[in-house]
Amino acid sequence: xxxxxxxxxxxxxxxxxxxxxxxxxxxxxxxxxxxxxxxxxxxxxxxxxxxxxxxxxxxxxxxxxxxxxxxxxxxxxxxxxxxxxxxxxxxxxxxxxxxxxxxxxxxxxxxxxxxxxxxxxxxxxxxxxxxxxxxxxxxxxxxxxxxxxxxxxxxxx
Length: 157
What we know:
The chain has helices spanning 10-16, 23-30, 43-46, 95-107, 125-133, and strands spanning 4-7, 54-59, 67-75, 78-86, 115-121, 137-138, 147-153. By secondary structure, it is an alpha+beta fold. The chain has a single domain (4-153), classed as Gcn5-related N-acetyltransferase (GNAT) (Aminopeptidase), CATH 3.40.630.30. Strands 1-2-3-4-5-7-6 form a 7-stranded mixed beta sheet. Strand 4, helix 4 (95-107) and strand 5 form a beta-alpha-beta unit. The chain starts with a strand and ends with a strand.
């Protein structure tokens, strides 16, 4: 069964919790609101998005997740993708592309969605190439020296 995007469930968080093994890696993946170290049992609660949002995993059926992402409406018309991560042992095999493509498809279902945004560390060359290949374009006014803010239009059906 090919991997698909499905809502994250309790047991998925236990797996995802093992993918961030240092404070620096945790900060880059989840941002400053997620303390490190954290208990796996608390991860679902710690990743809750104020004002609502969705957590998803890339997985084959009920198998353990291969990747994780979240999305939320940042501003009207723009759905933000965040906390995008692929299992460390599986990186470099195209799962990041599949995860982001499926996440964009899911985000496009949000009412009024016209674009998808994300942030990426400039030194993450593989992620930058992936996002550029998916037609994300940097918005310099919302970027910093360390992090690029990128946006892609959602294609009309």
